[in-house]
Amino acid sequence: MEEQSRYDAKLIRILRAAAAVFAERGYHRASIRDISAATGVSLSGLYYYVDSKEELLYLIQRQCFETILENLHSDLRDVTDPERRLSLLISNHLGFFASNMSEMKVLSHEADVLSGDYARKITDQKREYSAIVSDLLDALAPQAHSVDLRRATFSLFGMMNWIYTWYRPDRDGPVNVLATEMTHLFLRGFGSGLQDGGIEGGGGYNATSMWRAV
Amino acid sequence: MEEQSRYDAKLIRILRAAAAVFAERGYHRASIRDISAATGVSLSGLYYYVDSKEELLYLIQRQCFETILENLHSDLRDVTDPERRLSLLISNHLGFFASNMSEMKVLSHEADVLSGDYARKITDQKREYSAIVSDLLDALAPQAHSVDLRRATFSLFGMMNWIYTWYRPDRDGPVNVLATEMTHLFLRGFGSGLQDGGIEGGGGYNATSMWRAV
DNA sequence: ACCGGATTCGAACGAGCGTCCGAACGGCAA
DNA sequence: TTGCCGTTCGGACGCTCGTTCGAATCCGGT
Hints:
2 copies of one chain form a homodimer.
Chain A: H1 6-25, H2 32-39, H3 53-76, H4 82-99, H5 101-109, H6 116-140, H7 149-161, H8 169-172, H9 175-188
Chain B binds a DNA duplex through residues 6-7, 10, 31-33, 41-45, 47-48, 52-53.
């Protein structure tokens, strides 16, 4: 963590600022000049750290998925109960998103902008993540599914990823409450009541990893 | 329907083509020249029908919400059972999306592009739609909610709207199956089995409105 | 045939875009 | 001090963008 060079530290600063600009203006509308202004680095100076605007987006997305997947593996290690594992996954996902709201929006909203090798590598990370979710859901309901696994996976991702359009911490409260409710909603549905000391067992399942991605 | 003038018909053709271009390239990346090429109308000729690129997006979105809300009201008329009403709403939403995939993507993905009066009017339509969903969910679980109403509403929208990122009719089957499963998922959760002749009562709740929006 | 409004279009304008180049700067090793 | 290399930047290039303007064309009513 403290082993990074001057160069790395500045690149990270640039990525963070770029994510904020991309989140606010959208990738295509945001200009390299905007990022230059946000970082204080001159227009051409940015190209010393990054080959192109597209690579900027790629590095942001790669860093995010790396962090999410690392934290997820660390959270799930030693946990076998399928429901607890799902609860942890949702906490991990939403926790990362809430702590990196700009990056979250870039991840969710600029998903099909990359092309070529950049796109291929990000797609691989997404596939790895999706497979984990699918396997986890599969383990959760070993009997014949009432809902197709693929559709259930994407429905869950929809619930979780869509929050970039509406979640605001000051209005919508802490993210662990959101994670608890979303876990309940996905597992038991809106129709059922939340039993006392229910699935969350007092909130002890919350993921504890560090969240800052970039 | 057949009362539209030459002018109106051509405008509608333009809106349809523009939606397809916006869906494929994204609003900001897509150029008026792309739309000109897709319609066969010359670059400057488009401005006889539309004041600006932004109005183009506005007209597409307005037409979509008008259609969705009209169809929804017509579907819900005469239906009082809350679960049936929710099932119809999901069928309506997904049915419209599947029949207007370009418009769906534009609706979901270019949500915060509009500004000024355009944005205000679309926001009003969205609020109307959200309020209907919230009221419907409220009626569904009159006892104390296990999940916050606002969060449940947006979770449902997330499940439904996210399909623009993954749904392909040839691979994922007809949309009424998807609607049935999503209704079940939202009401009962992933953990519960789909009881025989269950919530869907044999698929008889599918919405029947016409889907073409523009 | 002819008029007048509705419709269409080629050509251009100014602005902003991503990227590149060559010069300048900084601090450390010799 | 000198030389070197990692770093920074002003300025420019070529391109695409949304929009405009004035002229040309079409077409139904007289």
